[in-house]
Each structure stands twice: as structure tokens, then as C-alpha cells.
Amino acid sequence: MKWFRNILFVADPEKGCRSAFERAVLLAENNQAELTLVDVIPRMSTGFRLRDGGATAEDLQAAATEQRLHRLESLIKPYGPRLDIRVKVLTGTPYLEIIREVLRSKHDLVIRPPEDAGWFGRLLGSDDMNLLRQCPCPVWAIKCKGSGSFRRILAAVDVDDSLRPEETRHAMNLRILEIAGSLALSEFADLHVVHVWDAIGEMLLRGTVVSTPEAEVAAYVDQVRERHASYLAALLREITGILGEDALGFLKPKTHLLRGEARKKIPTLAGKLGADLVVMGTVGRGGIPGLLMGNTAEAILQQVDCSVLAIKPPGFVTAVELEG
Questions:
Q1: Residue 212: its pLDDT value, please?
Q2: 124 and 251 share a domain?
Q3: Is the alpha carbon torsion for 322, 319, 165, 199 positive or negative?
């Protein structure tokens, strides 16, 4: 299944990360998608004052832009025979300009190597996290090292159960599984699906304030677990209808129904499996569209040590607007 048609790769010519760009090229080829390579440079506010004049801010901006364009063109040159890749240099705050480019050109995927792959999960407040929070299309934060073929892909469904209405939540779960399944097929990777649940109120029932017989508490916990197990099974049946029985038969996705807190269980499972990629949803909340992710999603991003493909729910609207 071809999910992506208009891919935006955010380059850092100083750092390189050619392996990540090669993955973007391959993904564009497999999806018959357009690929644009961009870099973002700061806006020059002042020039150099010399006795006989000097370079103006406009001169410096033009020179910096030209320099970055040459570097981008050298990066795409080896791929010329394979794909027509466009290049752009944007000016301003990186995450804002990337999102505005997404809005202008209607990109459906952003691929960006983290600013520091070793500290990806600790970059709260950085451009990486702002992009993950506010970009309206999926964002693939791909590690430079180890970004060859993926062996294990982990799809996390229902990361944040605060998403409402239920139809939107279900639609995002299907989107997560569809994208993760498509990538697993193209990568010949193992697909794992994780859903974390808990029996809310169990401790209260066992407490001294509310005296509930142990058998009733156990029955309640079993009922909650069964409800989550049934939903996960129904979700997999539905995605089988979308991807096809042959595809799901080939993938044989392994399911993990874990009890506890998603913010703890998912990073632990990703590490245990040696996952190369986690596909998960990020939810806009806080009263302002696109301002924040759910607390659980951010906590997971702080802990995983692999590439992450973050997906927004249907109808998500970013708080970033086009200028003028």
C-alpha cells in the first residue's frame, strides 16, 4: 500500500546523515512519491559595517542560502538517475518553517534525523519535539546510525486514551496499524502490536473505604482485560480487511497485551524486542489545537532509543499558520 505521496526530508548538511536520506529516497521510490529536500537557516538581521560600506543583511542571507543550496544539490546528485528530487532552503525558526512548508506544499510525511540521535528522547522543548507536537502530517524522527533495513517494527495502539470521540481514536489506531503494516511488508520486518491496559479503580475497590469481596474485584479485572483483548482482536481483524489476508498471513503480527502504564511498558517492550521503529499516535490537547501531545506520548518519546514515526489523529489542526 502506498501511503505517502509527497515526502519532505529535512537535511542537516553539516551533519550529513546520508543513510537516513537513502531511506527517504527508497521510500519515495517504493511509493512513487515526490521527494523534497530542505534545509533551514537563521534569518540574518544585521550585516557587517566596514569603513567602505560592507555586506548588508540581505547580502549575507543570499550568500548563506546559495551555500546551502550547493550542499543540498551535492547531496542529491548521486540519486539523479533514480529520482527527481527538489531542493529548497527555508529561512527562520526550523520547526515553524518546516510546518509552513508542509502546509504550503501539502506534504504527507516529514522525515528528519533528530538533532542529536543519542539524546532524542531528552529534547523536550527543542525543534524536534515542537515538530512532533505541532506538525499536521506524520513525522518520522529517524536515527542516523543503524538506519539500514528495519528488522522489528512496534506499533503502539491506544497510547493515550484521552482522545475523543471514540471514532477518531479508532481511526487513528487503524492508521497506525496500516502504516506500520505497510512498512513491515516493504522492509520484510517483524511486526509487533502493543496495547497497554489497566483496571482503573482496582486499588479503591481493594481499599478500606470501599469494601469489595476479592472475587468481585478479580472478576472486574478479568472483565476489563477481556474488553481490551476483544478490542485488540477486532482491530487486527479490521486491519486484515484493509491490508489483505495474504499480507497479514505473511506478517503474522505478534500482539502484546500488557497491563500497567503505557509510558513505562512501551519503552521497556521496545528495548526488549530491539525495535528499530516505533509507530505511535500523538494527540493534540490542552484546548489549543496542535499545541501539545498527550503526556503519555511525550513520556514514551523521552525513553525510546530507536526511530519513531509519530502520527496525528484525523482532523488534527496545527496551531502554526502561514505568514501573511
A1: 77
A2: no
A3: positive
